[in-house]
Amino acid sequence: MSELSMKDRARIEATVHQIDQALGGRVPRKKRREIRDELRSNLTEAATNVGAEEAIRQLGDLPALISSYAEVYRGRWDPRTAFWAAVITYAVLVFLTLVLPHWPIAGLAIVVLIGGILSLVPVTFLWLARRIARMMRATIPAPPSVR
Amino acid sequence: VAENGAHASQLLKGVLSIALLRLLAERESYGYELVTRLHDMGLPDIQDGSVYPALGRLERDGHITSRLVASQLGPARKYYRLSREGYKELAETERAWNNLVRAMEPILSTPVPSQPKEAAR
Q1: Chain A residues 33-92 within an 8 A CB cutoff of chain B
Q2: ipTM exceeding 0.90?
Q3: By the CB < 8 Å criterion, does A3 face chain B?
Q4: Which of A58, A76, A77, A66 lies closest to A36 in space, CA to CA?
Q5: How far apart are CA A93 and CA B56, in angstroms?
Q6: How confident is the model at residue B81 (pLDDT cuts 50, 70, 90)?
Q7: Element housing B77 (H / E)
Q8: How far is Cα B111 from Cα B109, in angstroms, rounded to an integer?
Q9: What are residue B80's DSSP bridge partners?
Q10: Nearest-CA residue of chain B relative to A70?
């Protein structure tokens, strides 16, 4: 086994960073940290045996590795989707408060406050959106059956 | 040779978790060590990048547990070992594997004819 050079260490760090960045928003942060630490440890040991370049090559197809990690550690909901859903909702709510000047000030304040809270908690927003969709479906009468 | 490697790689993906469970039943081990053990046992086509997520999957499913152990060579190593569920899973998959091998053996052991028989009319 040989001591790793700064260049080898930098290569390993770059690979670990590349994988970690690709997992951003797809894998919970705690798991990402665990993956990072484990990859760094395994790559360091592999590099002392076969060199950093070969150790990284032996990882195989990096996009496939990233997909496998994402598949294994994905949570109940994709944080990226919920994040964008929350951002769009918040933007819509802010827009409504601006274009509806006849609303009382208190009403506007409540809408902005609720929008802010919901956008901070995307899961709450998704739950609310599902409830509203269900309510709307319930209020729309079913089309007459065709005979 | 490359094509043989690709076929072997596809087959190995299916049996990788059995091999990992079997190796971890023998002794506690970490990712890179498991890769080298698999290579030494005659499976050189297995890539590190398929073993590490497979270990994550086994841990997620409760078949193995892990702990960090300090290493003199560098960052701490993540050692894995079989859980009680893992031993059950290993017994079941070994049984399934042996049944599959028994079923495939007669199919693959007969010589391949130069021409397939034509269907009777």
Answers
A1: 34-35, 37-42, 44-46, 48, 55, 58-62, 64-65, 68-69, 71-73
A2: no
A3: no
A4: A66
A5: 41
A6: very high
A7: strand B77-82
A8: 6
A9: B29, B66
A10: B53
